[in-house]
Amino acid sequence: MKKILTFVIVFFALLPQAVAQSASVGGSVVEQSTKQPIEFSSVALYRTSDSSLVAGTVTDAAGKFVLKNLQEGSYYLAVQFLGYEPKKISPVGLTKNHALALGVISLAGNQKLLQELVVNGEKAASVHTIDKQVYKASQFQAAQGGTATDVLKNLPSVSVNSEGDISMRGSASFIVLLDGKPVQSDAAMVLNQLPANAVENVEIITTPSSKYDPDGKAGIINITTKKGATDGLYLLVNAQLGAPSIQDYSNEKKPQRFGGDFTANYKKQQWSLSLGANYKREDIAGLREGQAQTFRNNILTDFPSLGERSYASYSYSVRGTVNYAFNKANSLEAGFYTGRKSQFRTANLLYRQKRIDQQTGEEINSFDYFNKNLRERKGDFAIANLGYTHTFPNKATLAVSGLYESTLLGGPTKNQDVNPDVPSHSYTNSSMEEENPLDGFRLKADYALPVGKKGKFETGYQYRYVLHTGTFSYSQLDLATNSWTVRPELSNEVKLTRKIHSVYGQFANEVGKLSYSAGLRLEYTDRTLVEATALQPHNFERVNLFPSANLLYTLAQGYQLKAGYSRRIVHTVTSWMNPFLARRHSETIEVGDPDLLPEYIDVAEAGVVKNFGNNSVFANLYYQGTQNVINRVNKVYSDTILFRTYTNSGNATALGIEWGVDLKPFPWWSLSAGGNVYRYGIKGATFNQPVNTHSINYSINANTTFRILSSLSLQLAVNYTSQTVTAQGEDSRFLIPSATLKKTLLAGRANLSLQWSNIDLGMHESNRQRITARGNNFYSSTNYIQEVDIVRINFSYQLNKLIRKVNFTQSEFGEKEF
Prior knowledge:
mainly beta
């Protein structure tokens, strides 16, 4: 950490001192035919005498821009956005203490430039504002045809492990927003449902303001979707086909990979209609190497395992949105989302069990068996939302919305032990049937009032409710009678209800070179878990305050200084609290903690951003302090079975620095890279045993693009996550390289790409991760080896240009329990 802190100190020390200036120039940029604002337009000011760059910025969501702290003199202004004709404003004469207003600047569409956008992807990869970092999804070619997860794993501070779990700043807990709408769902499952081709931008918000839900340790990831045509039709169609596996590890079934999706929008006068649908089949072959030992009564039980661990998964869905603008002051929006997703996890493992007397070292007995385990997880969703927005004469706005979700989750887990030499000879045979219907809704009202020239006061109320019931029936086959019987000790019924009332207030303003915001959110949570076999329910009731604050200070020469603070919470989910034993596979029995406490997190950070031309670099120093940290831990249940549960392990801290660069040194070459280095530590107790451990962890995500021809490009990418400690062990490093060759067709409206993911070339380094845990009387280490050298062909076609945002309804509650 000394090296990290030294780097930060030197970095800040090298910042040039701000030169006091007094002139400024501002305006707004819109699309010529529709008069719609163009966000992220590039605005640059040049000195007339030598054409040297003086200052630059990008437009905000309203298309507005301001360049401050300028010297008096003669200049010209260049405004451009890929897909439009650039515009030069000349002369621009500035005098001391002069604030020049250029008014509205209109850009006309340019088909040739739009084609260059599709081919080269040279739009700025990242933009930094007071409370977020914005990344363009189109720059990550390897994600085309994939999901939003494939986009995210390229961002600084984001990492994905071998099981597809997403982490941000080392934490798997964060909120997902879709077009600014909160989604109370498991992040990985939501993002794996959303096609990458529907993603326009990804916004990373690490110290969210009080108007957002405070859920999630690491902050918020907001996904903004593609934009549709104004007064016309917009259509984006994508199809993908995977080549046969190069390495399938001799799994029982061959993986299949194919899919497609489309996004369409039609607008006519006050009406806007949007529709999207997708189907994706994504199987992954795999291998599992396990080593497990238990120590009981001077007997060492060693049961290594080896075999298939593969996934077969498919999903399909339909989304729609209707928007009607009564007039400029009133609009109504309704949306729906329906579909199904299924995942089949196969774990067919050969166990070679031995018992050894620890005193004499002699073998007591041995037993080989083949365990066939299949877990099926299904989810049927039906979701609807309705929202109304009113704008008052004083430019204040009131937005009222509601969302309702009905979800049916469940699926069986089948577990069978057989003679490896005579598979028809069964030792044990069992099945766990789960049925988990869920109903939830959210009602909210938000009011925003302009204050002065640049200030804004926001306040609002929100009510969240979820009812999640579960029926679990564990059946075992009586081999003597060939009849199935239910085991009551492994069966149960539960019902979880959670009600959350919240109110917030927030004020934001801009004074000179300083932009700031501060707010406070109050939440009342009432949680009740009822189980059929318990006499008393498990209740949790608490009132919490969540403050937030953000600062942005603009210096000369393209520098910005940022700072922020936010208090957050991680609410427990039903699967962490199930209070009865559940047999998951041969060597694991799982039980939750019905009295599990939520995590409380304090997040603080400070950073610097440097923009120069079409390039940018940034670095953020951050701290996370977590109370009641939740960990999944193990202990011995029997000689060959580990007991797994979720528990509050104490407190955890993370201190680190994240960085990123977006460079375009030549027209034919661009580089986007970022990473995260942090010290993570846990101090507390697990199963009455003290825990005091820490490690230095890091991750690197980088991609570089080479423009070979005007319509042909090659992108190379790598995602790397270092080894990290856990409450009882460590997770090994994880490496994913990829390459994409992309060809533009049909005058820039179509793309054909060849994708090579999980590049390994027989080196046995890619897409594998070892998970190790140890306690006083057990040791477990499992190496998950996933499929490598996967080749896909992807084709995309786009009709009409991108103007208006498409907002699709997404799962609020059910995905969290999938």
